[in-house]
Design a protein that fits this description.
Blueprint (H helix, E strand, L loop, with lengths): L1 E11 L4 E4 L4 E6 L6 E2 L4 E6 L1 H61 L5 H58 L2 E3 L4 E6 L6 E2 L4 E6 L5 E7 H4 L7 E6 L4 E11 L18 E9 L12 E10 L5 E3 L9 E7 L5 E12 L3 E6 L7 E2 L11 E3 L3
Antiparallel strand pairs: 1-10, 1-14, 2-9, 3-5, 3-8, 4-7, 5-6, 7-9, 10-13, 11-12, 11-14, 12-13, 15-18, 16-17, 16-19, 17-18, 17-20
Helix pairs in contact: 1-2
Length: about 375
Amino acid sequence: MPLEIRAWGELATDQLQAIEATVAGRVASVEAEPGMTVRAGAVLAELASPEAELEAAKAEQEFTAARAAVVALRRSLGTQRLEREARLADMRSAREASREVLTDLERRAARGEAVELEQVAARDALRSLEERIELEEKVLDLLASTGREQIELETERLVALGDVAAREKARVESLRVRAPADAVVKDIRIAPGTWVVPGTELLQLLRPERMVAELSVPAPLATKVRPGLDVLLADASGDSIPGTVESVTPVAESASPAAATGGHLPPPPGARVSVRLGSPPGAAAAADAAVEATIRLGELEDALSVKRPAWAVEGGAGSVFRVAPDRTSAERVKVRFGFGSRDRIQVLSGLREGDVVIVSDMSRFDDVPCVRLTP
């Protein structure tokens, strides 16, 4: 015998997300409808903003020009450096040649040849070349350091312009309003042709996989509910949704909910039960949608049970009319009940397997031991 209890409640979510405009513009089209299931990245609406598109084109143009300027600067500095290095190489070659001339003159002077004036001229020429080489090396070092600084400054400017271009491009892309994740469209706050400014709420989305069911469990049954129990939910459209009890919170005594199921109001709640859904509800389901739940507490092995009479109390005793084998009469018998479920109750004594009993309201026959049945 399955042990089940019935509860009522509604779907709830804390993942209701408002989609707002980030750019001023006019609503060109609305691609979504309330209740529609959308995938992540799906276009929900499109805005038109010539100003944003113009700013994006201008920023992209400036970024492209800055990138070309960096390339040109690198080329110019590289050319200057190569020219200076070539000039320095020529000077070093000339210095080596001048040293050879001076060495030859010194050998000739050692042999007694009169070359004094030539030696003085050679030394002056060598000294001049060394000074020019030293100066050229300094110029080359200065060119390298200043070149690096110029490139760093231009690169920083290029990065800044790239950020601006990326930001303006993102603004243009945001004109196509997309779903940030798989969701259900709950509400649409705009219409084609309307003008919106940054911060204007465009749509509301809810995340079905983040939805839970909040149930009110009657006081006599609340103590039986615990986290981890299986739950089967039914919404207004008749769809069944599996779930699991996530938490149980006692609730102070209060009035019964106004919602009715099957023409009967549920008893006052004794606990607030939060149910984690095992699968997303259908597109028609939304936050605040009413649901009826069957919470499975477990089952009894080899239990004798009967369809639960409306007056039957778990663990209580009473009497029912047992139908005779010929189906022409029914006699009153005393029974004792055990565990109760949603639509069945355990019979501890008074009945046997196969007995047929009357479970409808027979209170008007409380003073008779037997009733006659007619076809």
